[in-house]
Design brief:
heterodimer; A: alpha+beta; nine-stranded mixed sheet; 9 helices; B: mainly beta; SH3 type barrels; OB fold (Dihydrolipoamide Acetyltransferase, E2P); 3 domains; elongated
Chain lengths: ~325, ~190
């Protein structure tokens, strides 16, 4: 691709992108949410076995490009900052495709004293404002629980189903190799391949994710008395756009989850990573009750502009770099 | 054969799937933000021609299929087999009727075809994109009626039936696109 010196984006889309970045900032400035520009390069990184960090050398030691501003933002929250947002870059290795680029623009924000449902409402307000400005007809906004949504398409309760029946479904939808996969992986496959295409257009909020996919979210009992995570995802025209949590503030529980991440990394022969002890110290000190969400800005642009590839909404996607 | 990991998947790659050689048509990277990455792949089964869709975990690998496409000259048929020759080595290969498939109705001796070999034996044959064949059977031509539309079926020397303009006659030679089966023009002798 040596001849690809040109950008992937048209000049008019570049202008649209610039205006969008400004609108996103205005939205938060008007609501007295403070913008923070945290480091993208740090000594530690996430241990999540499904997210790979890009490793670098810094002053003779190792450094990692951050996969999201989450840990730094949580340290700021623990230090007493109130509502904060970050609009910046994040990096994830080995993620490249029509909807993925190893470097991307992320919008992440935290609301202290809010729960995940209040935050979902704010996400809806933000996106509705943006689409109103581009003069579309009213944006449809729906909110559904993961369990209800999954069951309506696949006829199985994702929280109570036996692992064996989830694997069986995954083999049918995916391929033979899913017969030995973990519960979380089977659910991901089924949701991505079978449920997502059935979601309605517009904004769809899916909340109460399975407990095994809690990541950094609290867990609670849903209306059917099942343990679920207080995590939500936002889909815009069937495309995953944002991921949010009622943040886990219990340091001990968080350390256990990070430990499980490390076990999983070892089991799947992925590079071992140390737990971010500065984050842990901040959690030990105390994270205020808060809800947070991270949104892919390039994907938002794709949907607002009807682009079919992420390459069309960023100046230079990885194949052009 | 070598194994190929999902990150090496690209269209045209030939892989073994459930014991059959397949060719990748499309490969899409799918990854939920917090979940396992996977490759959603569309493959064509090279034996049956059927298209299947499979999803593999990222990093998973499949065995490559010993499949190569080679330009070969069609020689003749003996009733049971169709014979093709490698132009460089003069090595001959016999293809079954199943392997020759649809190409059957377009083949003339000396034509250069793309023969797909699987474990060294012809698996499928793609005829030249354009062939020139004589009409052996059609309704009498309406001479002079060259301007206006309208068409009629014509049987070609290889057995194929194509729609041709009304003015053409038995003995005329026509150029046909084998991918669509459409008449392209008359070949002036």
């Amino acid at each position: 691709m040596a001849d690809h010196w040109q950008p992937g984006i048209t000049t008019s889309s570049l202008r649209y992108r610039s205006e969008l970045l400004q609108k996103l900032r205005n939205f938060f400035y008007q609501r007295q949410v403070i913008e923070v520009d945290v480091p993208v390069l740090a000594r530690s990184t996430v241990t999540d076995s499904n997210v790979e960090s890009i490793k670098s050398q810094v002053s003779g030691g190792s450094g990692y490009l951050q996969t999201s501003p989450e840990y730094f933002m949580k340290r700021l929250l623990a230090a007493g900052c109130d509502d904060i947002f970050c609009l910046g870059k994040a990096f994830r290795d080995a993620e490249s495709g029509r909807r993925h680029n190893p470097e991307f623009t992320i919008l992440e924000w935290y609301r202290c004293g809010w729960n995940e449902h209040q935050l979902m409402d704010e996400v809806a307000e933000l996106i509705t404002q943006l689409t109103d400005l581009s003069a579309q007809e009213g944006l449809s906004v729906t909110k559904r629980s993961y369990g209800e949504c999954f069951q309506s398409v696949l006829g199985v309760d994702p929280h109570s189903a036996e692992l064996s029946s989830l694997r069986q479904l995954a083999v049918t939808v995916g391929s033979q190799s899913w017969g030995q996969e973990s519960r979380a992986n089977c659910l991901d496959l089924l949701f991505s391949l079978a449920v997502e295409p059935q979601l309605s257009d517009g904004l769809v909020f899916i909340y109460d994710y399975p407990a095994c996919q809690a990541a950094l979210a609290q867990t609670h009992l849903n209306t059917h008395n099942q343990l679920v995570s207080r995590r939500f995802e936002v889909f815009f025209n069937k495309m995953e756009l944002a991921n949010g949590y009622m943040e886990l503030t219990d340091a001990e529980q968080q350390r256990q989850r990070f430990g499980k991440d490390c076990d999983q990394r070892r089991a799947s022969n992925k590079p071992e990573l140390a737990i971010d002890e500065k984050l842990m110290a901040a959690l030990d000190h105390g994270l205020p009750p808060c809800a947070g969400v991270a949104l892919g800005v390039d994907r938002l642009l794709m949907q607002l502009q009807g682009a079919t590839s992420i390459d069309q909404v960023m100046a230079f996607s990885w194949p052009r770099c | 054969m070598a194994n190929y990991s999902t990150n090496e998947f690209r269209s045209g790659l030939k892989l073994m799937l459930d014991g059959d050689p397949c060719s990748i048509l499309e490969n899409e990277f799918v990854k939920p933000g917090k979940g396992q990455a996977f490759s959603r792949v569309k493959l064509r089964n090279l034996k049956t021609g059927r298209v299947v869709e499979k999803t593999f975990k990222s990093g998973e690998s499949l065995e490559g299929a010993d499949v190569i496409d080679m330009d070969m000259q069609y020689l003749y048929e003996d009733g049971d087999f169709w014979y093709f020759m490698e132009p460089d080595t003069y090595e001959q290969h016999q293809a079954t009727e199943q392997a020759v498939g649809e190409a059957l109705k377009w083949l003339s001796e000396q034509d250069t075809c793309v023969v797909t070999l699987y474990n060294g034996a012809p698996l499928s044959v793609v005829p030249p994109n354009h062939v020139e064949l004589e009409i052996v059977e059609t309704d009498p031509g309406l001479r002079g009626d060259t301007a206006q539309g309208g068409s009629k079926p014509a049987k070609l020397i290889t057995g194929a039936v194509v729609k041709v303009p009304l003015f053409l006659d038995q003995g005329d030679v026509v150029k046909v696109d084998t991918r669509t089966g459409e008449y392209q023009g008359r070949v002036k002798e």
